[in-house]
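Do me a favour: review this protein, sequence plus structure tokens, and tell me how the chain folds. Record follows.
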Amino acid sequence: MNKLSIIVPCYNEEKTILSVIDEIRQFTDKDKEVIIVDDGSTDETKNILKEINQENIKIFYHDKNYGKGKAIRTGIQESTGDIILIQDADMEYSPKDYPVLLRPFSEAGADVVYGSRFMGGAGYVRLHFYFHFIANKLLTHFCNLFTNLNMTDMETGYKVFKSEVIKSINLKENSFGIEPEITVKLAKKKFKFYEVAVSYKGRSYAEGKKITLKDAFWAVYCIIKYRFF
């Protein structure tokens, strides 16, 4: 496991995209590639990305906004690393947690590692959006029921995989539904899951948060669909 592929799906993140790239660059413990997928941004994100010219950064552009799932699928397809890590472009999750996320692969033989916002001991977690917290917990418990896992945070933005593990499943979701799709499909194949505590600085909708209640209902549908069909 010598090379790390960091997939950064982004949509209208002109305020944060350069900051997240800068933080990723500061993580130098491994050979890495950064794969940024612009999912049809309509703000200045695309123009900002076109100014980037660095050897280990690959940038791909969708012709329209398909959704986070489609951007992740593109990133996985284009990745060449031994480990694939998904990094949101909104700075809610910090690349400073990479060493914690990667440790179970070398120390515990993990196939999949999720960074949980709810395990505690991770430095800081912004306290707001109580109903989002409840929705996250309900979705996680519902997913656990159908996968027989004991996760604390299925909807986390920090998901890390061995390359051959994530590429062993055929992903189809274009939306946020890719989160439960990934979890259910990998659990069905009996891969070894681990969770670690990570920090989280959540945004408000005024600050650019995009996930909505509609996505929660779609996640329930995806859990049932990919578990049984």
